[in-house]
Each structure stands twice: as C-alpha cells, then as structure tokens.
Write a structure and sequence with these properties.
Two copies of one chain form a homodimer. Chain A has 418 residues and is mostly helical. The first copy, chain A, has 19 helices and five strands. In chain A, strand 4 (185-186) and strand 5 form a beta hairpin. In chain A, helix 5 packs across helix 12. The longest helix of chain A has 28 residues, at 283-310. Chain A starts with a strand and ends with a helix. Chains A and B meet through helix 7, helix 9 and helix 10 of A and helix 7, helix 9 and helix 10 of B.
Chain lengths: 418, 420
Amino acid sequence: MSWRWTLRSLRSSRARFHGRSHELFFSTSLCSARSSRISVSPENSTKVVSCKEGRCWGARGLHDVRYQLDLDRSSEEMDPFSLVADELSLIADRLRSMVIAEVPKLASAAEYFFKMGVEGKRFRPTVLLHMASALNMPTPWSAADNLFGSLSGDLRTRQQCIAEITEMIHVASLLHDDVLDDADTRRGIGSLNIVMGNKLSVLAGDFLLSRACIALSSLGNTEVVSLMATAVEHLVNGETMQMTTSAEKRCSMEYYLQKTFYKTASLISNSCKCVAILAGQTAEVSMLAYNYGQNLGLAFQLIDDVLDFTGTSSSLGKGSLSDIRHGIVTAPILFAMEEYPQLRKIVDRGLKEPADIDIALDYLEKSQGIKRTKELAAVHADHAIKAIDAFPESDNENVHISRKALVDLTHRVLTRTK
Amino acid sequence: MSWRWTLRSLRSSRARFHGRSHELFFSTSLCSARSSRISVSPENSTKVVSCKEGRCWGARGLHDVRYQLDLDRSSEEEQMDPFSLVADELSLIADRLRSMVIAEVPKLASAAEYFFKMGVEGKRFRPTVLLHMASALNMPTPWSAADNLFGSLSGDLRTRQQCIAEITEMIHVASLLHDDVLDDADTRRGIGSLNIVMGNKLSVLAGDFLLSRACIALSSLGNTEVVSLMATAVEHLVNGETMQMTTSAEKRCSMEYYLQKTFYKTASLISNSCKCVAILAGQTAEVSMLAYNYGQNLGLAFQLIDDVLDFTGTSSSLGKGSLSDIRHGIVTAPILFAMEEYPQLRKIVDRGLKEPADIDIALDYLEKSQGIKRTKELAAVHADHAIKAIDAFPESDNENVHISRKALVDLTHRVLTRTK
C-alpha cells in the first residue's frame, strides 16, 4: 500500500475545509535534506499561508511549487517520528528564535538546550503533532474558530505553538532540576549549571517560563493558559514530593504514582488537552486527549524505571541504577516490597550503603517486581489506545495515519530498550 | 474639612453605578481592629457582594450593618496617609494571597507562605499603588457596559483589580526567592531568608510554584493582554538580574546600562501592573499608557532614592548607610555621577571594588562630588513625570477618585523624602 502525501501551498486557512488535514510548511532546503523521495513539480503560483507574524522564522514562502511526499512503504509501518520530522525541525527553529533575548548571555544559556543534537528524542512534540492531526476534523466550533484563526493565526500553527511551549516548560524544569540535583550531565553534555553556574541556570529557567507565558497569552485562550500553568505547578509539586518524602510515603505505591503523574505525565496530558481545545473539540474529546497523554506518560515513566535496572538487557544490573543509588524508590522496588517485607527494612535504612543496594537488587531479582511494573505499564498503554479508539469517527486518511502513529507510540514506549 | 466615607453593604455590583467608587469588604473583626473611629450602626439588611468564588477567603458576609468610616480631620495640612486609606483592603488581599498559595504539598505551602506572613510583608508598597490606581481610574468608560457584563461573569471589577495586586506580589516574592538563591543572601525582610532556613532547592521550587500560581490567577482574569503584560514583567525581572550578573567593566560604568537594568529590575513590574489595572477598568490605550508611565517613573524614582539611602542611611552624610551595593561591587547612580566629575574614580571602580581601601577611596570621591545631589535631582525629575501622568488622567468629579489621585501624588513625594 502506498500513501501519497500531497502538500499544497495554500492561499488561506479556508483551504482546511477542502479536505487537507494539515498544512506542513517546508522550506526547500529542509525538504531536500530530510524527506525521502520527494518530487517537486512546479505548479500554478500560490502563496503560502503566512505564519503568525514574528513567530514563524523557520517557514519560507513557497511559490510555484507543489510538494509530494511519496512514501511507498508496502509492508513497513510508518515511523511516527519520521512522519513529522520536517515539522519538528520547523518547531525547533522557531523555538530557537523565540528564546533570543535582549541579554545575550541569557540567550546562550537558554539556547543551550535547543542545540541540534541535544534535543532529546523530541518525544513530546511528536505526540502533540500527531494528536493535532488525529483531531483535525470539522467540529461545532470550526466556523467560529476559523474566524478566530484568521485573526490569531492558523490552527496548525497554534497547535505547533503548544508543542513549543511544552518544550520550553520541559527544558525550564530540567534547568531548575539540575540546579536542585547538582547534576553533572544532562542529555549527554555537561549540564548547564556545571558549565555556567547555578545562578544562570535558575535565571535561564525563569526566562523560558516567562517566554512560555507570553507565547501562551498570544494564543488568546485562557483555558489553555490555565492548563499549561497547572502543568508547571504539577512539575513543581512532583519535584517537591521527591525532595520531601517521608519514610512512610517512600514506600507507598500511591504516593509514587501521584508523584510520577506530577513529574512526567501532567505536562504531556495537559498539552494534549490544549491541542484538542484549540481544535475546537468538545470537552469529552478533550478529556480523551488528556487521558491518552496521561496514560502514555505514566507508561513511559514505568518503563523508564524498569530500564534503570535492566538497561539494554532483560537481566538486572546492566542498567545505570541511578534511581536506587540516589535513594529513589521506584515501582519495581515497591512491588518487590509487597512480596518481601524484609526489603522494607533495607529501604528504610536509606539505601546509602552499597551493600544495602546489592541486597535490594537481590530481592528485586527474586521477586516479580520488574514483571509487574511492565504489566502495569502495559495496562496504561492499553488505556491510552482505548482513548484514541474513542475519538470521533473520521474518513480522512491522514487522520487515520496519525491515530495509528499515536497507537504505535504507545507500543514503542513499552518495547524500547533505552 | 471632614470626609465621610460611607461603605454600604451592596446587593449587587450594579451598585457601582450609583456612585460608590469602590467596595471595601470588611469583616467585623478586621474593621474594629484596624480602622480608627468607626461607628457601626445597624441598618436595613443587605447582603455583601460575593467575591469571585474560591478566591475570596478573607471576605466575610456582612448582614444588617452599615459601616461608616468617619475621618474627621479639621486641619487641611494633615494629608490622608495613602497606606491607611487602603489598609483593610490590603489585609483582604493578604488573606487571599495566603489562601491562594495553599499547595497540595505542605512543605511547599509553608515555603511560599513564608513570605506572606504577617509582619514580614514589606511595606506593601506595590499593592497600595495599585489599589489607588484602581480607584483613580474608576469612572464610566466606553467599555464599562461590556465590562459590567463581563464583570458579572468573571467577577466584579474591583476584585479583578485586587487580583492584579495579588499577582504582582506573587511575582515579586518569586523573584526575591530566586534572587536570594542567586545572591546567597542571609536575610530578607528582616528574617532569615528562605534559602538559609530551608535550602536553595526549596527556594527555587517555591519561586516556581508562585510563578505558576500567578499564571493561573492571570488566566482566570480572561484578558490575554494582561497575561502578556505580566509575563513581560517576569521576563524583565529576569533580564535585570542577568544584566547585573553578567556586566562587563564597560557597561558597569554606563549610566544608560544602569538605568535600563533599573527599569527591568524595579520599574517594569509596577508599571506593567498599573497598566493592567487600567486595562481591566476599560480605559483607553492612552490612559493605560499614562498609568504605565506613572508606575515606571515611580519605580525609577524609588530605586534612585534607594541607591542614595544605601550610602546615606538615615543621615544625609555619607557612611551611615549599609553600603551593601558598593560592597557587592554594584555600581549605582551616585557613583556613576561622581565618575563623570572624577575620571580617576573610574580606575578604582575598574579594579572591582573588592578592597576595603578602594571602597574608602570611592566614598571619598563620592563625598567630594555632586553624586548624591544629582541622583536626588534625577529622582525628583522622575517623580515629577509621575505626577504629570496623574494630572493627565481624564476628568472626574467623583470625590473618591480625587482622593486616590491625591494619594498617588502623595506616594511620589513619600518616595523622595523617605529615609529608609
């Protein structure tokens, strides 16, 4: 089966109603460098929809060109990341431009994390872009939104903005967390606070947060502002919970899951919901988007916990063991404690002694801890898939492709080895 | 001349149109404890306007009571103290602030609350300015009708303007918490700074928490221009602090750089929040800019006098002040002016002001120079600009509007004449 993706330069956002599920803005250089098998054929001259002024540095005007992304994959699955690769670059460019500050030192500090090569897997933006495509259909509010959209910028651009804001908030939290944890490395390079000092890290994080607020206000939707601000607060809550845990709470699965929601899942769930709200979806559908993000985030963290023990091997001890070495008790240990109460005593001693850590790992290996954590992750992944299945029907092919990509992402979360 | 302030319990916000310039919500206990010369006389039963739900913890329902604040001041020379005029409203705001920062994580709540404790709240300067600004602009505007419709949906105008004051304080305290981490400060507002008491980590988190609460409160106002202005204020605070940290030798001696940094660190927050108050009141862009100008000039005047007091303290001679700026190697306006007269001082400054001997030499130059005097003059210029902005406000024959505009002018004078 081959899919033909046709991306046409659009005269106005009204073209959205003519069945194109989304507009992907390409620059000729981006296109030729990254996408595979593109045929470029000159067409009648049409203008690209202008991005929201001042924020679309990455987009180039397209004239006289129609791009076709010909993805002839007969049996291979569509890689969710490749499907949105160019849009991700666009977002990365805009992000870099958006953080240019009047104070150069701050700009270099903030840019530090948006450098090519240290951008992580761009997991969150990928989810959000597919969520946007998966919900791209006429809604009760489409007409009003279109009016609003032409005032405040095309829908897709605004949804991309959510992805940018999400990344800014995420990076700001990383910068502050690194100060808190005195971390040495982050994303494989020297963490900013080591390179430039704690002070600048705190300021750079604040700067990103304020830029995120300004970008949020530009969307003109106060529910969206409120949701993303709540996500920031949850990040703070989660980090605080981790710092101020009592011995009792440390051994509570409920406390751990709440903390995990705050630290990992809340950001992605709230931004998924924002994407749905901007699309004019109903409250029910927006909650489905939220549920997808929430369950995906929880599944992601649970597997993260497993990988910290197992690494690239399914046996123990090959992982980095960084959680347990920092005295952080995660799901596998919590499950193991249910089977072996003696393990509780070891944990209560603080896991500071290497000998204690070894004993704990022994118990973990004997127990079903790893297995049960994986099962719990699978349960959450299943909930996420169910949320996608409950989305309103659509016969648009690109909507189906993106929904499939979202399902695919839940599988990848479960099966990844790093 | 005696003024009679009549505060009537109101049935609905529509009473605003019957000439009351603002509703001050009193609880009987607050009232009796703080206001002077209050006579309470039972009247026909009326209900107080309910505050925006969930955020008005401090207000108590009033029934069957009419309060009269009788301020019988025969001598015209005695001015109304701007702070006393809004004392009860300030307490209301403080209560709401405390409630607003209650967190699901208790340790964070105690950290954030740390700065809103009674007694360590600073002079509540900013909220006082904002409340008077709200009163000073309380008049029918082209948007009043629409705003009233919106107001009944999203909360009474005065409550929303009070919310700006709360948000401003949250942002201000968040910046203090982060600055203390940056500066390894020992004390703040006379008590052990939070980072010493509870650690740097919790200070950073508490600051972030306050910022996110401020964002949520901002979004509840339903006005994206306001969100944008306050977010810009946050960014400016960050810019100002960064400028201070990363100054080159060249820039350190530049008056222009110093004034820009001062605007960012001190004036931007108050100017942007004044503008927000005006915007919420439905004022035109021109009037909103006047409010902005007032705040900007007031903030700059405040900081310039602050710089002077750091040298002079409570005496007009040098050396009695805390000298904390110069001891941290921070070059402020008096030194910058002195450098214009005595270029030799520049060399001393370029050495970093790390040696006590260098500091003494610099102070000598400062005393010989016109540095202090010229700084005070510059502050007076800005205070004058602030007063002109108030004078340019649209005419009103409402007495309370006049009282508040007078209070705003009074505040500019107090900024100049204060000794601490």
